[in-house]
Amino acid sequence: MRRLRRAYQRNARQEAKRRKKFKKRAIAAGTAAVITLGAGAGINKALAAYTPDNHELPVSQDADADLLANKEELAIGYRVFEPDQNRNEVPDGVELAKRCAADINELPIYDPYSGDPEPDEIYKICAYAYGIYICPICGETIVMVFTRIVNPKLGLAYPDNWPYSDSLSALSLHFMEHGSFSLFEEADDLRFDFREDIPSLLRVLELRFPYDPNEHQLPLDYVVESVGQLAPDANDLDGDLLADSEELKAGFNLYDPDQDQDLTPDGIELAKRCAAVINQLPWPNEVTDPNETYKWGGAQLGLEACDICGELMGMGPGGIVNPRLGINVECNIYMAIHYMEHGSFSYSGDAGAGRIDVPALMKVLEMPQRCGDLGTLYLPGDLNKDCKVDFTDFVELADKWLESTDPNQDGDTER
């Protein structure tokens, strides 16, 4: 008990020191920005529309204060000095914790003692214990359950020391649902802290980017009997669902799967963006300008069903025409848009399968159309990447200038 008390006191001192350092850095950064920019200038755009949750526990050695430690970010391919890589105004660690919790909650449960064959997909095993947790933050009563995730394809499981470990306990999942990979318990005036092994957890879940993978995102080597391979080639060095030949013709980087650093593979992001642009295009009878780009097509042949989800849509030829440039792209317009909305340039339905000519589509749509689209070129002084250099870029500079460039330091000079 004396050892537990000493451990608790040591953790309490370390926690108090971390909070003191964080407060000093926040005051220093805020003061510097006010001195530099004057009263009323915003410091942190990412947190302006974001409401923190008391469950989101700070972590040491976190240069960008996104609730992911520097070493964790390096291990999972995130950027140490970017707190909101996909620019959705939610810190990366918070978003990733919630995403992991959602994925775990949706996994099928397998009973290894049932005699049923092991599933060939990722599944979880749940061990129930006699007891409850009381969340020290919100007071919620939580049934004591311990979860293990098994990935039969990779031959991996998490956690290793299961059951009855702190990893993936019901309390841990509760904290993850609220945006934190850290948790703590309180018992007999003692506090016990724990943190999930994030790289191991993500590997078992086969999760890297915070985007929604789905079966519509057809692989580049997807083959159907009538047309063979849909993509022009199955070579994809960076694994972003754009063939190397497509990236070369479109002027993209075939070695970088996430060129705009928003944590979504380029092919998926580009397909969804193209679908959004096409959906805004007029049909021929809606065109008001003879140079206006439009889409055409009809359901002359009836309806067809998507091979993945079964959704019915119009069957017939179609395409996109750019009169100003005198170019067009033909495709099965309804099915192509359906698959692009799910992140795939390849599509497959009752009427057949195909793939849109990605480089040609970029030309017809004159992509990029807006700031931030894949392929956007930014000026050297455009620190916040809004395609203009102005006063807000100085806000960005003031927000970052006190940060340490050493990923092994937390940015504080106090020793």
Q: Would you give an account of this structure?
A:
It is globular and about 75 Å long. By secondary structure, it is of the alpha+beta class. The chain contains eleven helices and 14 strands. Helix 1 (2-37) runs antiparallel to helix 11, helix 4 packs across helix 5 (170-177) and helix 7 (244-250) runs parallel beside helix 10. It has three domains: 2-90 and 393-400, no CATH class; 98-205, no CATH class; 223-365, no CATH class. The longest helix has 36 residues, at 2-37.
Percent helix, as a range, is 25-40%
What's the arrangement of strands in the largest beta sheet? 1-2-3
Rg computed from alpha carbons, rounded to a whole number of angstroms: 25 Å
The assigned structural class equals alpha+beta
Query: Which H/E pattern describes the elements?
Result: HHHHEEEHEEHEEHHEEEEEHEEHH
- Alpha carbon gap, first and last residue: 31 Å
Number of strands: 14
Quickly count the helices: 11
Biggest pleated sheet: 3 strands, antiparallel
Low-confidence stretches: 1-48, 411-415
> How many structural domains can be distinguished in the coordinates?
3
Mean pLDDT: 83
Beta-strand fraction estimate: 15-25%
Mass-distribution shape: globular
